[in-house]
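Example for tutorial group B:
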């Protein structure tokens, strides 16, 4: 007489050693929340309490890339600006590389407003 064991009631297999750690995956090339559009406008802005004139190089619903004189901004500075006659949402400097910086808006610019800015 043969006895069969129900597979659901078999003992767990011997524990396996922890798998080898894997390298972190490469960062994504584009981690933006929305598409950046080229712009090229020279605007007056405010970084914290000082006035700064900047070139807005590109813009999206959630932020923009700006360029100005060396040392014009620090990460975390609050930014306000009027782009093409339209007040952009208040933002913060997210990164600085030389004379360029990224601004992350605290709100969003509507897509129709972006279309207007990029057309004119």
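The residue assignment follows.
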């Amino acid at each position: 007489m043969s006895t069969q064991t129900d597979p659901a009631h078999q003992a767990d297999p011997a524990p396996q050693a922890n798998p080898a750690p894997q390298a972190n995956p490469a960062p994504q090339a584009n981690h933006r929340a929305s598409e950046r559009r080229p712009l090229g406008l020279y605007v007056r802005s405010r970084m914290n309490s000082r006035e700064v004139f900047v070139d807005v190089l590109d813009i999206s619903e959630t932020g923009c890339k700006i360029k100005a004189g060396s040392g014009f901004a620090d990460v975390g500075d609050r930014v306000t600006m009027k782009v093409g006659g339209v007040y952009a949402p208040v933002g913060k400097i997210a990164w600085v590389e030389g004379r360029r910086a990224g601004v992350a808006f605290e709100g969003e610019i509507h897509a129709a407003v972006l279309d207007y800015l990029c057309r004119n």
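Helices lie at 111-119. Compare this with the pattern of hydrophobic and polar residues in the output above.
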